[in-house]
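Quick question, first post here. What does this chain look like in 3D?
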Amino acid sequence: MRVVIAKKTLSTVGGSETFARALDRELRALGHDVALVGMRPAWFRPGIADDARSTFLDVRFGRLGAAIDGLLPTTLVRDQDLRRVISGADVVHSLAREWAGALERAARAEGAAFVETPLVHPGQPFSGDTASDLARYRRADAVIALTNWEATWYRERGVSHVHVTGVGPNLVDLPEVAREPATILFVGRKEVYKGYYSLRRAARMVWRERADARFVAIGQPAWFAQIWPILAMRDPRWVDHDVVSERVKAEALARATIFAMPSDHETFGHTYLEAWLAGLPVIAGDIAPLREVVREGVDGLHVRNEPRPIADAVLALLRDPERARWMGVQGRARVLREFTWPAVAKRTEAAYELARTNLRAAARK
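> Answer (accepted):
Ran it through. Tokens below.
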């Protein structure tokens, strides 16, 4: 099967970007002919400059257009360029709604099945829940959801051909390093909705009881952090890193005691899987998709994105290290059982086959 996976930004930073690359790798391992298609960026992004296997398209208005298209939910790619790279494909898979309308037009023009993984975030700006988005989901030959909650959200809005695949962890081998007794790790975009700023305020509450607790945050800073550097945390027990290599991230996971990302908006949250692979209990946001991904009291805890509940959860796990260790063991077992990338690729492959069947059935009508 010839598959085109389209993701506007194809760097190694971000959940949907690593999703695209992992699917490319695993579908190739299953014997499919896969092409990754994205936008030629206006500026360097990690993992792009040396990627010879991907096709990068120029967009309208040159570097200015690429800057706009990289930051906003616009579609500045030319339809003829998409048709050129899609020609001969059996399946066109659009990730994260980027260029989705143009990709659907190109797929229809070239006779390919159109598959979309929308990654909806109801309640957020540009979350994928507009009338035009829903109309496109209903037309798609397959819509891929990451959780059963997300699949139900589509079906309740009249979307057919919905499939649930989940995701896999993006983690290199863990190094042999000593586990630290009281280190809380955050990995993600340092945004308000991810719980980063609530976790910083929670740290001060934790230190009143556990002065030895150490917090490590890894990820891309929010845009306003560049404008107001005074917002930086000025305590040596709080360590901030920007984007780091996979090796450095793996070492941070291997050293940590607890993983905390109490997010208000997630489609799945693949970093919880990485934390479980490292044997860590997780503190997740108290939202519907995360209540499905993280099992309360089994492999993690759910809290509101507020300092006091976060601090209480951290302290509860620090006070009971055996319970915390058991949660990490349960999470790791579940990842290995349900959420490996080969398993996700097989579920995706099945969705593609059904999408092609749906396309042929529609053509006969």
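The mean pLDDT is 92.
The first helix runs from residue 15 to 29.
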